[in-house]
Amino acid sequence: MTHDLLTALRPLLTAEASAEAPASGAEPADLEQAVWLRLLERLDMHGPPLDPPGWLRRAVRSEARRTRRTARLERPYGAEPADDTDRDPADLALAAARRRALREAVRRLPGRCPGLIEALLSPKDLTYREIAGELGISQGSLGPERSRCLGCLRRLLTSEVAAREGRG
Fold first, then answer.
1. Which of 64, 70, 119, 151 could be joined to 24 by an S-S link, Cβ 3.0–4.6 Å?
2. Is the whole model's pTM more than 0.85, yes or no?
3. CA-CA-CA-CA dihedral for 154, 156, 159, 164, to nearest 10
4. What is the torsion angle, in degrees rounded to the nearest 10, for the CA atoms of residue 74, residue 95, residue 98 and residue 154?
């Protein structure tokens, strides 16, 4: 039954994700992957939705909104240039300490997140295809997995920074 449901919903999901992706700033495949994951989790916990096409449309829109919110909140750091040649030793030491703290936080992440984030931070500048091959997962699942891992990392680092600032 689950296989039939997934097969029946595939064309609708592809169309909905393709329609919502441009406005959300996400790749259609990333939206599809996130919705498949939500559907499988729902099937496992509650069984199939009463109105699968309606549920799927709402799930795609929800994932697109979540992606837009996340993209609005993420900003590149402007204070840490890639070229360290003109920086004084104190700035270099602080940058090294931040990198160490980031690596330590990455190691505390759950599941496959440490390996994925390490691959993304690799100086080799690996492509998604290379990362997927290295981790033994599908290339299409890298986007949603990366998003979940970065969310975990953000929450972990936010709680640590808040805890340190609170001690004052």
1. 64
2. no
3. -110
4. 0
What pLDDT, in 10s, does the model give residues 51-76?
A: 999 999 999 999 999 988 887 777 66
Q: What are phi and psi of 2, to 5 degrees?
A: -60, -45
Predicted confidence (pLDDT) per residue in 119-148, tens digit: 888 888 888 888 888 888 888 888 889 999
Nearest CA to 101 out of 167, 156, 162 is that of: 156
Distance between first and last Cα of the chain = 57
- Phi, psi (deg, nearest 5) at residue 96: -65, -40
Task: Please give the Cα distance from 41 to 164 (Å, whole number).
Answer: 36
Looking at residue 85, the DSSP 8-state letter turns out to be T
DSSP state of 141: G
CA distance 168 to 155: 21
Please tell me the distance from the alpha carbon of residue 119 to that of residue 133, in angstroms, as a whole number. 11
Helical segments of the chain, H only: 2-24, 28-46, 52-73, 89-107, 113-121, 128-135, 142-167
Between CA 63 and CA 54 the distance in angstroms is 14
